[in-house]
Design brief:
The complex is a heterodimer of chains A (356) and B (170). With 356 residues, chain A is an all-alpha fold. Chain A has helices spanning 2-39, 55-65, 76-92, 123-144, 148-171, 173-179, 184-189, 209-222, 234-237, 247-272, 284-287, 294-319, 325-353; strands at residues 105-107, 110-112. Chain A has a two-stranded antiparallel sheet with strand order 1-2. The termini of chain A are far apart. In chain B, helix 1 runs antiparallel to helix 2 (26-46) and helix 2 runs antiparallel to helix 3. Chain B starts with a helix and ends in a 9-residue tail after the last helix. Classes of the chains: A mainly alpha (356), B mainly alpha (170). The A-B interface holds A 75, 78, 120-122, 125-126, 128-133, 135-136, 139-140, 143, 151, 154-155, 158-159, 161-162, 165, 169, 182 and B 27, 31, 34, 50-51, 53-55, 57-58, 61-63, 66-67, 69-70, 73-74, 126, 128.
Amino acid sequence: MEIGLRLAVSLAQIAAVMGVVMLTVMVLTLAERKVLAWMQDRMGPMEVGPYGVLQPIADGLKLFFKEDIIPAGANKFLFTLAPILALVPALIGFAVIPFGPSLTIELFGMQIKPFVISDINIGILYILAFASIGAYGIILGGWASNSKYSLLGGLRSAAQVISYELNVGLAIVGVILLSGSLSLVKITEAQAGGFWNWFVIGWGGFPQIFAFVVYVISAVAETNRVPFDLPEAESELVAGFFTEYSGMRFAFFFIAEYANMILVSCVAAALFLGGWNAPYPGTILGYIGLDSLAWIENVVWFAAKVYFFLFLFFWLRATLPRLRYDQLMRFGWKVMLPIALGNIVLTAIAAYFFPR
Amino acid sequence: MDHIFFFYFAAVIATTSLLVVALRNPVFSALSLLIMFFHVAGLYVTLHAEFLAAVQIVVYAGAILVLYLFVVMLLSIKSEERYHNQLPVAGLLGVMLCTEVILLFIKSQTSRMAPAAAADPVAGPGNTEMIGEALYSTYLFPFEVASLILLVAMIGAIILAKKDINEPVQ
């Protein structure tokens, strides 16, 4: 009974988070086209619904009803498995993201944390572990398609993801040193009390501004977004690793890319920008005596930070041209890696002399 | 409950390890290795070693196996020439290992050892802190030696792969 109830609550939480993530993906597909259009002085999609706001539904329906084509000579099993391997790791990472304050509520005699599905003590490592699995979907999709463009896209992606994953991992070490925990809940709580306590500014420790820049650039590279979208460079490789994919399988890759964007934005907000903490001490709703509603303000701040990063992704896409492959590798290994390593050394020294 | 999980993980690890060498397509071999890494990580979680579990996936599944796949795809190895006449050596080693396992089984039966205490959750600080403490105090010297060996291997790989700048391009 107890275990069944706990399972039901967990499933409800998972369903809620997945619902929000999927809704955000829908919003993002429209937002990307609209933002790009505005930056290029166009209107963007205007046909479906008022001002084009129903475009994501039309896109989804189209992809759902499209014919599912498996190319001749493709490895059927891996061709089917690859989109799933891409999507699952992208969604599973949200399990440890704290979306709001770490309240516990009593429900049927159980302690429930409403804003985080599971507060495990290795939260950030868990996300890194599953982010690294996402590369398999891309590589296997490229290989199983039995197409040269797909294979080249998949191979490029493998090299790129491995190179930049290292930088992501090293960039967050500084934050872990300062907070003394791998749990995202504890890292966020360590940044409470105003924007000067956020790790990107890091008052009283060592500012993680370099790590922040390294993280953001590496995160863009890891999600295969412009200017690092070499795995799917449409002017060179048709569409890269998903050239041969159509219908729902293509949609899976598409959703995985956007879910990954949301995930890295959530991690960036939680690690560097204080997560759900407001930039001032406490909450305004708390000051005017509405303590029980203060979580709304916190969740809104978290969403605002995440959407700032998502906007940054679109902004970069509208601004920058694609890097060449050797530039990408040189930048990753010879610029980002030394900065991240230097940051670890300096942060370690600062954390030793000025313990928080 | 613990036993059910252990037997599930152990069975999948044994099966997928066999499949790694038994499957004809090297890409499928790599995939079954991936499944095995995940279940080894699961075994660590049941032993309350979450840090090891995460590192297992980050390092082995996330980096090393991706490189394996990379090589397998670039070479596009076909399924012929699989065992390279290694059967006599492999047979000898297999017999030795089997004898060892059987001997260990007999020994543990006679001495009636209690099951290892590893099933108890580690109390106090988390296992990440414990591993860090042990690694940087008790085992500092072996740790540094291991990192030195890795550094040597890395330099060796770079020297093997690098082209001489002054050498004319062929």
